[in-house]
Write a structure and sequence with these properties.
With 87 residues, the protein is an alpha+beta fold. It has one domain (11-77). The protein is built from three helices and four strands, in the order ββαββαα. It has helices spanning 26-32, 53-57, 72-77, and strands spanning 11-15, 22-23, 38-42, 49-50. It has a four-stranded antiparallel beta sheet with strand order 2-1-3-4. The longest helix is centred in the middle third of the chain and has 7 residues, at 26-32. The chain binds zinc ion (2 copies). The site of one zinc ion has 6 residues, from loops.
Amino acid sequence: MIDTHDETKPTRVWCCGECGEPHRWQDAAVECCTNPPYEAWACGRCGEPHTEHDNARLCCVDERGEPLPPSAAELEARGQQRLPLPA
Ligand SMILES: [Zn+2]
Ligand SMILES: [Zn+2]
C-alpha cells in the first residue's frame, strides 16, 4: 500500500459516543466509554473530528480550498518564534 500522506486529507476515525474522543480504530473507541462509537472524519491538519467528510475536508482550508497558513500556536509548536506584536 502506498502511503501518500496528505496533511489536508481527512482521516477516518471513530468517535467515542460519550466523551467524543476520536480514535483511529473502532475497537479503541468501543473500549473508551460505555456509549457506542460513531464514525467520523478527522481534519488532516488539526485532527478535529467532524461527522461530515466535507466539513473535515474544509476545516483548515480557506474558501479557495487552499490550506490555511499555520496559526501562531502551530508555529510555536514547531519551535518557531512568535512575531512580536507591534507596539
Ligand atoms: Zn470516551
Ligand atoms: Zn482542522
